[in-house]
Amino acid sequence: MQIVRFLLILILATLILPQTHAQISSNAFYSEPTQYGGGEVEDPIFFYQDINGATLTAPPGINYQWYQYSTNSGAFEIMPGSTGSMLNSIGENGYRVEVEEASGNRTNHYCWNFVPDAQVDSVGIPFASCDNLRLTAYTQNKTLTYYKHKGDNSSLTVDYGYEWSSSPSGPVSENSDYTAFIDAPTEDTEYSVVVGGKFASDLPPAEASKSYSAIAVEAKYTFETEGTADNEATDGSAPMVVRFTDESLGKVTDWEWTFGDAGKDFVANPIFTFQKFAENGYPVVLIARNLDAGCESETEPEVFTVSEMVVKVPNAFTPFSTPGDNDEFRVLFRSVNKFTMVIYNRWGRKVFHTSNPEVGWNGRIGNRKAEPGVYFYKIEAEGFNPAEKAELEGLVHLIVN
């Protein structure tokens, strides 16, 4: 029973443990796997500074036979006399070794070998618009070709690798191809590419750069709303005065501000007054242009809302009892253009008058404190919109605790 259990454990372990794939080794300074794809086992690609000193070593075994790839036949052809575990004096080509193991099992192993030579002539910009750029590294890299020997025998080439950068930094650094399609920058930029950087530990990479004079613009702005606790408020009472500050990027030569139905302006930093209530508000849009290049950019609408006229009246105040709290009889208002408020005592005598809705009655008649009790008010108000009027009459209690 113990033996059976041991055998079951051994079988399970064999199934669960990852199976290793022995490969040819080399004295190359750098290696990477092939890119056959399609489920094929990838082979090593070895890179050397000088192929004359290159050696290949087969996985452990008792007998060996080496083969060399032939582009004429599209197959690995036997190398007579190459029957040792190590192969010397190789060329830039593919090799296969057949290994006979002590068990009698025969396995085949493959590799490819190259001396890379990265060369880049220049960085070009074959396409440029107000929105996008195409950068291209024009190279004369030595072509390193290998073949899908277990598949359709189609050819593949080694990717030298492209490392893009820019000053100022930008999205091109995310690209690793010989060409990059990116958003057009709004400031003059130096683009650089390094080709063959993965070989840099032993072989110098190739480098090139290109200066680009930006033509693109990006419309942006900030604003401050006067007379509000939050100076970035997009809603308020008329007249609503807003200071706009252009912060567009790029070589802007022309500005066009649209304030909904309220009007337009064509300066960089306008101060605009919204006078009237509009049911859907005022969508503000900035269009920034580079007229020299024919480029423009437009912001998303920012809606500014002007309140309808509001006048609300309290029914009591305590001018002498709680200093700093409810000291004045004052209306709550928004978007009031014209205003009058008159207050009378119980005998019809006028005790207070104002045409400013921000001014309230402090409970005094002249320099004398008014008697506590009931007073009468009459208010007339007009808004900024036509026919926007209000007439309010009522009682207010002057309370002394």
TrEMBL record:
Gene3D superfamilies recorded: Immunoglobulins (2.60.40.10)
Signal peptide start-end: 1-22
Biological source species: Carboxylicivirga mesophila
Swiss-Prot/TrEMBL keywords: Signal
Protein name: Gliding motility-associated C-terminal domain-containing protein
CDD domains the UniProt entry points to: PKD
Claim: Iron is one of the keywords in the record: no
InterPro entries assigned: Ig-like_fold (IPR013783), PKD_dom_sf (IPR035986)
Pfam families the record matches: CHU_C
